[in-house]
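To the wet lab folks,

You asked to see what we're planning to order before we commit. Fair enough. Below is the target structure as tokens, and below that is the sequence we designed to fit it. If anything looks off to you, flag it before the synthesis order goes out.
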């Protein structure tokens, strides 16, 4: 009986250690948010996204054995956000161009926070939070805006790199949708 328990505990420990994951390198490709009417008239708009975070990790994943691994970006996060923002601006019929501090209209988006935490358990808890700030210039006017998105999810099994990337991508898309709404697009088009 005692030997059976020991073997069972040993087998459980082996299973848990086999389930433990190492550092994940996440490749992000967020979808652009849904946009409203074509307001830009094909006008060129300077665009840049700046990663203003102090910590460039995306977060942490807790394994069932208590070990914690880092979630890293496989590419520049600001660039991934910029691609999605450019597609959103195209949806408003703007022509996104390289940033030029003298171009009007222009838009700067700052990535202020991005955190994805996975807590081990049954089920695994996924919490993602992102904060963006934008400054737009149109004519001699300037408009600033902020957006914050928080998403929660549960998984029966430890989330894979792709599952973690999808959770972060969904948060980016939601925050960009809040930031680049029709009101902001109207401002950039000089209609406000």
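Sequence we intend to order:
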């Amino acid at each position: 009986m005692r030997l059976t328990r020991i073997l069972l505990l040993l087998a459980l420990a082996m299973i848990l250690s086999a389930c433990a994951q190492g550092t994940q390198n996440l490749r992000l490709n967020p979808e652009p948010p849904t946009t409203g009417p074509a307001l830009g008239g094909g006008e060129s708009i300077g665009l840049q996204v700046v990663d203003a975070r102090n910590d460039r990790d995306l977060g942490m994943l807790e394994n069932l054995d208590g070990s914690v691994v880092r979630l890293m970006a496989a590419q520049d996060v600001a660039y991934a956000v910029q691609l999605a923002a450019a597609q959103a601006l195209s949806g408003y019929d703007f022509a996104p161009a390289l940033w030029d501090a003298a171009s009007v209209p222009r838009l700067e988006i700052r990535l202020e926070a991005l955190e994805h935490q996975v807590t081990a358990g049954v089920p695994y808890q996924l919490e993602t939070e992102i904060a963006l700030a934008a400054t737009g210039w149109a004519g001699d006017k300037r408009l600033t805006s902020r957006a914050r998105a928080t998403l929660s999810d549960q998984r029966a099994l430890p989330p894979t790199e792709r599952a973690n990337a999808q959770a972060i991508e969904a948060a980016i898309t939601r925050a960009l949708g809040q930031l680049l709404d029709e009101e902001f697009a109207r401002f950039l088009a000089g209609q406000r």
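Structural context that might help your review: The longest helix spans residues 161-179. The chain has one domain: 23-188.

Thanks,
Computational group
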